[in-house]
Design brief:
Blueprint: E1 3-10, H1 18-26, E2 31-34, H2 41-51, H3 61-72, E3 78-81, H4 88-101, E4 108-113, E5 143-148, H5 153-160, E6 165-167, H6 175-185, H7 192-205, E7 233-238, E8 243-247, H8 257-265, E9 274-275, E10 280-282, E11 287-292, E12 295-299, E13 302-304, E14 309-329, H9 333-350, E15 357-363, H10 371-374, E16 384-393, H11 396-407, H12 409-412, E17 418-436, E18 443-448
Parallel strand pairs: 1-2, 2-3, 3-6, 4-6
Antiparallel strand pairs: 1-7, 4-18, 5-14, 7-8, 8-12, 9-10, 10-13, 11-12, 14-16, 14-17, 15-16
Helix pairs in contact: 1-3, 3-4, 5-6, 6-7, 9-11
Length: 449
């Protein structure tokens, strides 16, 4: 039976490159995917494109492809990635330029467009957002972008036209892997059982090291060997859509039924109805079986017809967050941090800080769970505490005031404050609407080396 070997080269925009290069060089792969877009990433990329029309692709694109293209000189592995972000065309152009500089020959680069519907947003002002149940027109902030989670059709078309590298924008994460499976096995786009299986494969691969023990690791409870040398996953898939999850030998991490189960449930709200643009996948009857060291057999995913809509992320400029932090040490550290908070609360009122929300955290005491755990710690007295003050405001000028007031604690008390820092974050937020998939026009362009 024919099989296809797909490796995962990245699980997010800032992921490591070394495990991916190992896979290209040693994994006997047919394909490697690089999943590098999070919810807000595409909007940040759109913002960069507004400032420079030749930008807007992944900020680490050139860093990654410098290593990828070097590895492709000796190893013919097809690359599929959403690192095109808001600008797949210029990402492909940069890839072509880099490949020529490296002396590569006979390389075909495809770029998939059509996910960007920012220019049509006026048509969708009455659409209700998933998060707030209010119309899109109720957004309080400058709208920057609208990108739909398109499916695998552009990838399949590119592969049918002999593309070696496929660069997309906002393609749904599992579709990066589903595309080559549909192409290689000739699956019909209404064979929902196989599409559901292929979507599970993509779901397991999309976060790279999570399924090989990275996010699984919990020392003393779920130990994972050589986490510093974590190997990324490979799935060898048969034409029925079932497969085997593994990793390279001599790499850190583990592949077990437990790691596969955890990743299978990652971000899944309803296992029977995992909505994607290609299929509504059904993971409710999946089976996983350990068949060898770091080898797990995956079977019995399924699916049904998609709902006909593409989830579309609308990015908008929401606010600024002004932040300041300062540390206190010694036996009275927490009391000093609490006094510093009191000072800041009064100072913010005195200067008339126009804040939508103000938050104070005692890092090391209650910054993650507020008081739900710290109140149960009894008389625990920390020897060091870092106070964080943050405020949501509408202007950069207001945001500056927060950090300035924290820094002023140096000489205005309480005593012993140190390591003060201040930052301003320009916050791009996301809301989501459902747009009929026939409103999107998917196109594929090509460049050759």
């Amino acid at each position: 039976m024919k099989t296809v070997r797909i490796g995962s080269g990245a699980g997010y925009a800032g992921d490591r490159i070394e495990p991916a290069i190992d896979l290209i060089e040693k994994g006997n792969l047919d394909y490697i995917i690089f999943e590098c877009l999070a919810e807000r990433t595409i909007s940040l990329a759109q913002k960069a494109k507004m400032e420079d029309p030749k930008k807007g692709y992944n900020a680490l694109f050139e860093y990654r492809f410098d290593r990828i293209l070097e590895a492709l000189k000796e190893h013919h592995v097809k690359v599929i990635t959403n690192m095109g972000a808001a600008n797949p065309y210029h990402a492909a152009l940069k890839c072509q330029e880099m490949a020529k500089d490296k002396g590569l020959k006979n390389l075909k680069i495809a770029y998939v467009e059509g996910d960007d519907v920012s220019s049509k947003l006026n048509d969708y002002q009455d659409y209700v957002t998933i998060e707030t149940k209010k119309p899109l027109s109720a957004i309080d902030g400058e709208v920057l972008s609208a990108n739909g989670y398109i499916g695998c059709s552009g990838i399949v078309e590119a592969l049918k036209n002999d593309a070696d590298i496929v660069i997309t924008g906002r393609v749904a994460d599992p579709s990066l892997s589903l595309g080559p499976l549909v192409y290689e096995f000739g699956w019909s786009m209404d064979d929902y059982e196989k599409l559901g299986k292929g979507t599970w494969v993509g779901h397991l691969l999309e976060c790279a090291g999570q399924v090989t023990g990275g996010y699984f690791a919990d020392p003393g409870y779920k130990d994972v060997p050589e986490l510093w040398n974590l190997g990324f996953p490979i799935i060898e898939v048969d034409e029925n859509g079932d497969g085997v999850v593994s990793k390279l030998p001599n790499t850190g991490g583990i592949v077990t039924t437990e790691t596969v189960k955890e990743q299978s449930l990652y971000e899944i709200q309803d296992p029977e109805n995992y909505f994607t643009p290609d299929v509504i996948a059904d993971f409710s009857k999946i089976t996983v079986k350990q068949i060898g060291e770091n080898e797990v057999r995956i079977e019995n995913a399924s699916g049904k017809a998609p709902n006909g809509y593409f989830k579309t992320s609308v990015g908008y400029h929401d606010c600024y967050i002004g932040e300041g932090q300062i540390s206190y040490g010694g036996s009275n550290a927490l009391a000093k941090a609490k006094l510093a908070r009191e000072v800041l609360e009064h100072r913010f009122e005195m200067i008339g800080l126009k804040a939508e929300e103000v938050r104070f955290d005692y890092i090391g005491v209650n910054s993650l769970y507020k008081d739900s755990i710290s109140n149960e710690m009894g008389q625990y007295i920390p020897n060091e505490v870092r106070l964080r003050a943050a405020a949501r405001v509408k202007t950069k000028e207001e945001a500056k005031l927060v950090g300035n007031e924290v820094e002023a604690l140096y000489t205005n008390g309480p005593s012993g404050g140190g390591g003060a820092v201040k930052t301003i974050k320009d916050i791009v937020s996301i809301t989501s609407i459902l747009i009929p998939n026939d409103h999107f026009h998917i196109t594929v362009g090509y460049m050759e080396v």
